[in-house]
Write a structure and sequence with these properties.
This is Aspartate--tRNA ligase, mitochondrial isoform X3. By secondary structure, this protein is of the alpha+beta class. Among the domains are: 73 residues, Nucleic acid-binding proteins (OB fold (Dihydrolipoamide Acetyltransferase, E2P), Beta Barrel), CATH 2.40.50; 203 residues, 2-Layer Sandwich (BirA Bifunctional Protein, domain 2), CATH 3.30.930; 129 residues, Gyrase A, domain 2. The protein contains 17 helices and 20 strands. Strand 6 and strand 7 form a beta hairpin. The longest helix has 25 residues.
Length: 579
């Protein structure tokens, strides 16, 4: 009698022991022993309990075995390009090239099955418990002003193109006007964002819109949705989620998507240095919106090396053109900032009190315009967290899920390329805050919006807003403030004139959410067939070239770049290894 371990149910990765009977042992043994790994084998026999003491409680099928009568090799597997075991290291390019094999791994099976379970629970919560209607919206649409770049699809009409929607935004608003007052969709969305890390040209979002709702109503719905669909093997979701204004998030964490699992908050220490003799601090405070900001790295002097501090200084200089000073107020270090000796005793004591500085703490200090100083310290806060965790300090518990609503965003931001012009902070359909509507006509840059983001562990997983339902207000914002061509949105503006109800909604990024829930290294690990870093499908080699004769019906032809243009393009978009 002999035993062999083998995958009997490959999709579930269940191992089943098989116990051959004497009369068929030789033939069965030959088939099973000679079959290459990952081959498909059909066996028949009797399922029986395993002998006492031989059960395996760690396996779903650890209580049973099969007394085999026959075995047949259905399909032999050729030599594998890599072992299908989670602990075997493979390059991501190889995994994407043989994605159908990579999907057999335990982790990919777990990720995709959990994703399916959560989506099913979301459908149940929205449709069965809250009366939402699941509506599919078109994939072929027209280009939308503002926002991310869209993929173009040629049509057979000369010079006319469809666009793939970056979200169903206009359609869900039109559904509200059409009387479908609770809409939901697992929506496919498309954005031509080029080579951006951890982004996908096509992605999935849980898209939601409601009529006669306010911001609180949307937030309550989403909190209930996540609580209902949350996996049983994770810590339960606690509601309500905390909320923070955009201004507070920027001032305290230096970002609009703060990771609140750890401290190291930004502190305004401008008042400490009002009468300072330190030149660059004095100069910064003399400028409009000039501030002095600092963060405290707990036990930084103990865990960070001199090269780490130098790396932090270089990071700030290279990425933000911002000077950052490391100061040791209670730790004796000969690599203290040269500025530290100019800090008066009174200022030193006030800093220790204000920032609650302990032994071995390091203070990172910077000065400049409020937003720039906060943003640079916000990035350095995360850099320092990475460095501390490399040294063994646990700051961000991976098993902890910290949700946060960020609210009261500005309605507009100045354009980077032309600060005198405005662009939408969210999208042009976002309603202004009721208290700020009068500022639209005098100081639009000061208007707050009814836009809200949902953040989880420092990643934005959702965003939404209450929409503009008044045609004249929408037209004014598009044409006068954003200087967009309203003809592109004539259908929506016309629809708003036919009794549009107040409405609002949100979209949850399903890929990002699942990446965080499963603790995956990349969103590509929670998508069955993702694109590479450069937007390529390494399995099928898409995108692919098309013969000229197939382009003729669309009245387009390929204009190949010259050598100089190709060289310029390679400089603007440096080559990255496929991953």
């Amino acid at each position: 009698m002999w035993r062999v371990a083998f995958f009997s149910l490959r999709p579930r990765s269940h191992f089943v022991w098989m116990d051959s009977v004497p009369e068929s042992a030789a033939s069965v043994k030959k088939i099973l022993c000679e079959a290459p790994v990952e081959s498909v084998v059909q066996v028949s026999g009797t399922v029986i309990s395993r002998p006492p003491g031989q059960e395996n409680p760690k396996m779903p099928t650890g209580q049973i075995e099969i007394k085999v009568k026959t075995a047949e090799l259905l399909n032999s597997c050729k030599k594998l390009p890599f072992e299908i075991k989670d602990f075997v290291k493979k390059t991501e390019a190889l995994r994407l090239q043989y994605r159908y094999l990579d999907l057999r791994s335990f982790q990919m099976q777990y990720n995709l099955r959990l994703r399916s379970q959560m989506v099913m629970k979301m459908r149940e919560y929205l449709c069965n418990l809250h009366g939402f209607v699941d509506v599919e919206t078109p994939t072929l649409f027209k280009r939308t002003p503002g926002g991310a770049k869209e993929f173009l699809v040629p049509s057979r009409e000369p010079g006319k193109f469809y666009s793939l929607p970056q979200s169903p935004q206009q359609f869900k608003q039109l559904l509200m006007i059409g009387g479908l007052d609770r809409y939901f969709q697992v929506a496919r969305c498309y954005r031509d964002e080029g080579s951006r890390p951890d982004r996908q040209p096509e992605f999935t979002q849980i898209d939601i819109e409601m009529s006669f709702v306010n911001q609180t109503g949307i937030q309550n719905l989403i909190e209930g949705l996540l609580q209902y669909s949350w996996p049983n093997d994770k810590e339960p979701v606690v509601v309500p989620f905390p909320s923070m204004s955009f201004a507070e998030a920027l001032a305290t964490y230096g970002t609009d998507k703060p990771d609140i699992r750890f401290g190291m908050k930004i502190i305004d220490i401008s008042d400490v240095f009002r009468n300072t003799e330190i030149g660059f601090l004095r100069d910064a405070l003399s400028e409009p919106q000039g501030t002095v900001k600092a963060i405290r790295i707990p036990e930084g002097a103990r865990y960070l090396k001199r090269k780490d501090i130098e790396s932090i200084e270089n990071f700030a200089a290279n990425h933000f053109n911002q000077e950052v000073l490391p100061i040791f107020l209670k730790a004796n270090r000969n690599w203290n900032s040269s500025v530290a000796k100019f800090i008066m005793e009174e200022q030193r004591l006030e800093l220790i009190r204000l920032m609650e500085i302990q032994e071995e703490d390091v203070v990172l200090l910077t000065a400049g315009e409020h937003k720039k100083a906060c943003s640079s310290l916000g990035k350095l806060r995360l850099e320092c967290a990475d460095l501390l965790e490399i040294r063994g300090v646990v700051l961000r518990d991976p098993a902890l899920f910290s949700f946060l609503w960020v609210v009261d965003f500005p309605l507009f931001f100045p354009k980077e390329e032309n600060p005198a012009e405005l662009e939408s902070a969210h999208h042009p359909f976002t309603a202004p805050h009721p208290s700020d509507i009068h500022l639209l006509y005098t100081e639009p840059e000061k208007v707050r919006s009814q836009h809200y983001d949902l953040v989880l562990n420092g990643s934005e997983i959702g965003g939404g807003s209450i929409r503009i339902h008044d045609a004249e207000l929408q037209r004014y914002i598009l044409a006068t403030l954003l200087k967009e061509d309203v003809k592109l949105l004539s259908h929506l503006l016309q629809a708003l004139d036919y009794g549009a109800p107040p409405h609002g909604g949100i979209a949850l990024g399903l890929d990002r959410l699942m990446c965080l829930v499963t603790r995956a290294a990349s969103i590509r690990d929670v998508i069955a067939f993702p694109k590479s870093f450069r937007g390529h499908d390494l399995m099928s080699n898409a995108p692919d070239s098309v013969p000229p004769e197939e382009l003729k019906p669309y009245h387009i032809q390929v204009s190949w770049p010259t050598d100089s243009e190709a060289e310029k393009s390679s400089l603007n978009h440096p080559h990255h290894p496929e991953s």
